[in-house]
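Record format v2
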Amino acid sequence: MVRVIVDGTPVDVPAGFSALQACEAAGKEIPRFCYHERLSVAGNCRMCLVQVVRAPKPVASCGFPVSEGMEILTDTEMVRRARRAVMEFLLINHPLDCPICDQGGECDLQDQAYGYGTGVSRYHEPKRAVTDKDLGPLVKTVMTRCIQCTRCVRFTTEVAGTPELGMVSRGENAEITTYVEKALTSELSGNLIDICPVGALTAKPSAFHARSWEYKKTDSIDVMDAVGTNIQIQARGGEVMRIVPRVNDEVNEEWLSDKGRFSVDGLKRRRLDRPWVRVHGKLMQASWQEAFVSLARRLDGVSGYQIGAIAGDLCDAESLCALKDLMTSLGSPNLDCRQDNAWYDLSAREGYLFNSGILGIEEADALLLVGTHPRHEAPVLNARIRKRFLDSGRGRFPIAMIGHPLTDPTYPAELLGDGPEVLEKLLDGSHPFAETLQTAKRPMIIIGHGALTRPDASAIYDACKKLAIQTGAIAEGWNGLNVLHTAASRVGALDLGFLPGTRGRNASGMLRGDVDVLWLLGADEFPVDKIEADTFVVYQGHHGDAAAARADIILPGAAYTEKPGTYVNTEGRVQRSFRAVFPPGEAREDWRILRAFSEVIGKTLPYDTLDALRDRMAEVNPIFRQIGAVAQPITQIEGQGVSAPSVPAVSAAQEEGLAASAFRPVMQDYYQTNPISRASPTMADCSRVYGPVRAVAAE
Amino acid sequence: MNTHRTPQEQPDSFAFDSASEAEIVTVLAKYPEERKASAVMPLLYIAQRQMGRETGSAWVPVAAMDEIARRLEMAAIRVYEVASFYTMFNTKPVGRYHLQVCTTTPCWLRGSDDVVAACKRATGIAGFGETSADGQFTLTQVECLGACSNAPILQVDDDFYEDMDGPRTVALIDALRKGERPPAGPTINRCGSAPEGGRKTLMDSVHSISENK
């Protein structure tokens, strides 16, 4: 620790801190444009000037390391004058278009000009103008506003790992560009909008839609992937206008994937806003009463074994718990949350979690990716892998992949092979990477759904587990055997035991026609034509996607922005979101629909309030009490589900041993993976521009 | 409007020829393998010279920069940044002869305006950055070339023609047009940057200096 004196107050900061960080530690706010705590230091805006006693001139605090006994003055006449001069320089070429600028109200330059701006300009020369760039469908540019802080250049290079932006030319002619005009290929490009301190990079889809101070802001959790990114939903007049990330260092730092940020316009399109009932083969509008009565009639006399439920990828744990309880009261053991037919080791909670945690990536020193492409499946988590790669230094964090990635993973990864047969070579030590894993202190294996949805998933998992034990990836205080989920609801559903009970059918069995009545809770990610023709389908969800068209009764539910919900992310972290807006039309929160219907059939669910339902969830699995943390299992789950894995139903489809076929990518098109993103015109645009990436032919 | 425009006519591909390859080997040998990105500027020069040899226009097309990025295992944008930062790399096609007139204060005081005017007159070029109609000459305004004692300077490609004035500039351009390459250096009676017409100081012997005391 180093003791520095900031404005007369001594503070102890770690050696290696910059003067700016020391000032922050002392509670002093230092204005800045180019400095960003998650990016490298550039020191080119000069706004963070402070006075260091015995230094001959003001110093840029962002790049000035502290030393013992250093005295920093942040509020002297010299500092104020220096900052005013810097601000005057910045404003020479900055346009005065704040009234029509989307950044207005949340602009660093605007805010700091209040403190350091001079009010009048001494310049009569024409301002510099710069042509706008086309960076694709997400990021809008007004390059004349750019103050050349190069945050965007550093973000794309360091965090996103897609070095496409740069500052070309020099001096008066310097500008930020891709040089050869092209759309940014990053799945994290929306974060450029947040890190740009001025209005040079703004959101293209929501351009000129609203002002930042008009929004009603609600904390929520992103459901577009299983990372559980902390988000803030910003709504105006009952409409979600935009979504921005919240800072959570343990989960998403301050980043958000493009799908999570820009799918918002899908929330108001193709919505189910009233119940529908199929009459004589045609869907007819109905009231809730009519829908419930006709569903109750259909269920009357049907044995519990003939009823089944499949949960989708975006469901909150509340609705999953309510649906499970309803199915149990109907006597049905046919429950499944794995519409992709994934296989998990359900003997313990560790079997389906990202055990090392997302933070654990920063401790790992070797990584093996099996059947997963985190750049698409969890862009924010992929940024963490890249961060680890950059922090650890050249060659100190070896990464290997099994399964050909669709795009560049953003870090050098050695491709060991296309199929799981490489695992055998790793196990018997004949592959050189086995040695790398062996020598690593904290090796990590990430198994993706490219592996877990295969018929030989259990063999792959067992091989990985064996490899993990062999290489010390599972050791005291470290569990590096990780499952990377892609569905936001999956871990919560598994924790609640939303799985086939004794003699219960799994998802593929239910689709095959093993049940008469099939209740789909937002489940759309399977070929709908696989459902047997005479199966009666109830679709409860928020979007008129594939499954709704096949349904016999549609119960309109709420999207994730429209209901308070609990989500468990891939590492088992229980997080809660709040309601930002109300569901459209007749649509209702999903657990309320289930509760209301249970009353119609005389099997009233024993909770009337959200709190009571959450108590019930905690009763099913105590992890639901541990909000915010990576929940630790306290006891095994009672009844059907995790403690009683439905081995017979699932293992029937499992093959023995590793198959030789290559891993297939989990998602062909990153931008359209769920009902919301498929309804979003912005995501459709992205899909068109970036194209469904075709698998690279074997070289 | 400040605008960077990548020239429309870009060659589709670029490959280093054997002469360039030989140079690249020498250049790369100077840097450790993991720091080979340091070789970006030498390689840009090699590419530019090769374009000069092959097409008569020494410039660096995007395809060449992409090839350099691939060789040095760096992001293409990093190469674009370097190439566009330094004015000595031409990112758009230039004429066979690249006339670079220094107009910084010492050259300007010594008559660089005449040199510029002569260049324009002799080539028919209207302004800086333009290429003559016959494609032979490109006129560029450059900052201090570091040869102020021999001002004004006209740099043609890599050669300095020093102590220029209007008529000598016209003569030089005429010679270039004929395919001649007059020797570089002072165009007046002087050796290197020594005084015009020979030595001007220290004419006396050491002995006579001490006598004057």
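The CA atoms of residues 92 and 124 of chain A lie 10 Å apart.
The longest strand of chain A covers residues 230-236.
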